[in-house]
Amino acid sequence: MFDIPLFRDHILENLLKFNSAILISRLWLPWLLIVAAVLALAVWILRRPLKEGLWAGLFYDEQYKFNRRSPKDWWGLFFLVAAFVITGVYVFSLENSLFESFDTMGFGTMRNMKEGVVPNFDTIRITPLAFWDLSTLYAVTHNIYMIKSYLLAQLAVAVVCMYCFFNYIPVARRLTMLAVFLLTPTMLQTAQIIFSEREIIIAVMLSLICLRHFCRTQKFRWLTGFLFFMIMALYTKENCVLFYFGIVVASVLYRIWQEDITPRSFLHPWRTLGKMPLEVLLGIGLFSFLVTYSLLIPSTDENLYLSFNQSSSLQEFIRYYGFELSLLTAAVVVLLWQMQKHSDSRINPMFRGGGLLVGGISVAAGMIILGLIPKTWHLYGKTYYLLLPTLFALAWLFQNMRNFVVLMLVSVTILAYSARADIIGYTSEEGHYYRQVADFMAQQRQETTQEPINIFLIERPCPDERQIWAFETWNMAYHYYFYPYPMVFKTKFYNLKDLKRMLYNKIVYDKLLYQYAYPMIPQNKPQTGDWVIIHKQNREPDTLNIIKDLSEPSYENKLFEVYHAK
Questions:
Q1: Is 236 exposed, middle or buried (0-12, 13-18, 19+ CB in 10 A)?
Q2: What pTM does this model have?
Q3: Cα–Cα distance, 178 to 163 (Å, whole number)
Q4: How many CB atoms lie within 10 A of CB 307?
């Protein structure tokens, strides 16, 4: 049942259908073409200033290459390869089916596999370029091992991009930094199917590589590459807006430090902007996103994504992201110390590589203001919202730690914490237990006639909206693997809203949901013949009343009990 072929049938037809659908849905492409046209016009208007000057001291001039005769470089490479292998082992030792998490079990994944990715360009998210590659991938294969192999290849590309961009850090330190970064819980736990963070890293790194080449050569092909990858990053995940905004802030502060901007500059704003052509272009890109956001997204209180993932207090936020905020704080302390050390110099470290750290600080500040913490079961404990701050904080620390002993102590400390957090995160993954229950239900299917299997489901205690969401994801995963064998899912509704939702699903079932889900029926108690699946954490009074009327479990594992109502 769970053995999906390596490749799908009708691959060419799927490729054309999936990718044409993603290009024309939700009018995101015309908007990005308008943004590209505006940026092209701005480049043409600012072509002379762009050729005349260099941008702020965002990048270092040093470039270090791998030295085959250096034992330190080889040891650094060994550490990086080991970290990548550990990541691969982590990925493939998780549940290798759609039961890996509620995200992969859900409607979004099922729809993407059957129809291609539908871009997020609506009242909830502005991320139309997120998962742009999955339409092609799902057109070719649904096999989880193939999909995870692709994701590891994507991670390898991200590592190469980071290695190339951070070439101003000596090779041994750079390779060690990347190894440590891969093993932090912030990064390691994004190695699963559901995250777009690898795309962000690739787009941000390529944009910065192109920008650095343009600052050195003033060749417009590099500027085009910078703008292309910047827009790609912005419309892949919203927090990239904060990162590039931080870079603009650092650049403007640099020009004030250099006295290129003075109080008199406000008397000639157009002339002043002409001195900052790259900042203007970046600002146009950011402004385009903010316009889109203001037109489509409701207020913070009304936005479903934000309201669903916001924390209740600053203390909870700090406790949740303690590791990432500690790294960022350490990097800021080093930055402030160096600023004080070079306070009488025009080569201030704040504007000599520190601008990237300011970008990371901006992302963290934005997350603090919004109080964003992933709240769903399969995401809670994962801290990928602060991935960019973690990356640039680590890069800043490793760049400025010149003492070998200090470098090793910091690395060991980070790795020790990461190992503990990664092990806790790994043991909290529950996909294996959902798969085991599905295996048991598969046996019941094989042992019965074509009469439908009725499943009465009681998940763990949770808010009502998540209860019904979990119920539907169970249903869709079973539909994907068991169809066309008939099944019916039942559950007790907890409020009128849930009941209306299930009744609505019954109404539209014949028109749409039969493609993705089995019939869903609201029911207070199991009926004779129902298979009753109960999460062991759920010992609410209603659940206990149901259990007392049942015989011994027909199957159980660490999370679930399965009864057969008679």
A1: buried
A2: 0.94
A3: 8
A4: 12
